[in-house]
Amino acid sequence: MNKQRPSLGADPLDTVLGDWSAAARRPGPVIATPSPRRVRATFHLPHALVEEARNATVALSGPPTRLTLARLVEDAVSREIARLRVSHNGGAPFPQRHADLIGGRPIGGHVASDEGR
User: Fold this and answer.
1) Rounded to an integer, what distance in angstroms lies between the CA atom of residue 107 and that of residue 95?
2) Is residue 115 part of a domain?
3) Domain around 54
4) How many domains does the chain have?
5) Is residue 106 part of a domain?
């Protein structure tokens, strides 16, 4: 009763995904689909806002919502950009910038923790 398992072969994913060699034989152009590349963004937010976001994420992390902090922030930023497009750019995407953002505090800006110094 020593049943031998079939070999996984050169690529173990072939067992799960099937034979992809047929796709290579199809005629026509190969069109690349955009990948959802993610980048790290670092910025400061009010402590109370971050705590509320963390609380919401923990409360909604299970089924059916399965919320993550990254998904919460991504959805919020996407909605705000859509709102800004409508209110400031006629609903169209904003033009591509040609330079990186300049870091630091805006000229004439202040931080709430600077008050009273």
Assistant:
1) 23
2) no
3) 46-90
4) 1
5) no
Residue 106 token pair: 């805006």
**CB 9, CB 19: distance < 8 Å:** no
Cα(14)–Cα(12) distance, integer angstroms: 5
d(CA 49, CA 98): 32
Amino acid code (one letter) for 60: L
Q: What is the pLDDT of residues 13-43, one digit of tens each?
A: 555 555 544 444 445 554 555 667 888 988 8
pLDDT digits (tens, 9 = 90+) for 53-102: 999 999 999 999 999 999 999 999 999 999 999 999 999 999 999 988 88
Cα 75 to Cα 17, 37, 52, distances in angstroms: 31, 16, 16
